[in-house]
Design brief:
heterodimer, A: 114 residues, mainly beta, 7-stranded mixed β-sheet, 11 strands, globular, B: 119 residues, 6-stranded mixed β-sheet, 4-stranded antiparallel β-sheet, 50% strand
């Protein structure tokens, strides 16, 4: 009963480096998403996916790429890290369709770009 | 566009007492869902309670209950018999129930209320 597994929990990057935040869920949820959490800004949607092979941009997509090759995995890629990407990142998954189903969250990744 | 406002950045409560956290939202939609999430120092986002807008009855989960006032667009969270483990950030969130190419699963968040529980 793992739910949403997000790795790593902490990461320090140098400006210009690239990295991938991993996210996997074992609940067969169609919908997966990435948020970033910043003080005074709340949580903002970066990218989301409604199923394998389908992704779309959220509110703050610049500097991030995603892909969805399987239902289970939804990695977030930082192509060239910038200090403005210092944040806490959350992956979440939902069932699609009607209904107020809850979003299940990973444990978050605290990313620092120096 | 929908917005969610939490007007209390910080609150405190004595252990065993009751506290109410405020949340207001703005929307032109008639069908939506509202959530309260708890974020303890571990960072994990935990669903506390959920309310469907079409239901008049206020949701309740053990010591947690909401006061949902649809006309006033208000969704407050009441925590009864507060415990030390209730200390956390609490976020109010909105989600449309209108199907929109999958983006109806987007959560719109308030900025949170930091709750301290004093022994």
């Amino acid at each position: 009963n793992a739910g949403v597994t997000q790795t790593p929990k902490f990461q320090v990057l140098k400006t210009g480096q690239s990295m991938t935040l991993q996210c996997a869920q074992d609940m067969n949820h169609e919908y997966m998403s990435w948020y970033r959490q910043d003080p005074g800004m709340g949580l903002r949607l970066i990218h989301y996916s409604v199923g394998a092979g389908i992704t779309d941009q959220g509110e703050v997509p610049n500097g991030y790429n995603v892909s969805r090759s399987t239902t289970e995995d939804f990695p977030l890629r930082l192509l060239s890290a910038a200090p403005s990407q210092t944040s806490v990142y959350f992956c979440a998954s939902n069932l699609l369709g009607s209904g107020g189903t809850e979003a299940f969250f990973g444990q978050g990744t605290r990313l620092t770009v120096v | 566009a929908q917005t969610v406002t939490q007007s209390q950045p910080e609150m405190s409560v004595q252990e065993a007492e009751t506290v109410t956290l405020s949340c207001t939202y703005d929307t032109s939609e008639s069908d939506y869902y509202l959530f309260w999430y708890k974020q303890p120092p571990s960072r994990q986002m935990i669903l506390v309670i959920r309310q469907e807008a079409y239901k008049q009855q206020n949701a309740t989960e053990n010591r947690f209950s909401v006061n949902f006032q649809k006309a006033a667009k208000s969704f407050s969270l009441k925590i009864s018999d507060s415990q030390l483990g209730d200390a956390a950030m609490y976020f109010c969130a909105y989600r449309s129930a209108i199907w929109n190419a999958g983006n109806n699963r987007k959560l719109i968040w308030g900025l949170g209320t930091s709750l301290a529980v004093n022994p």
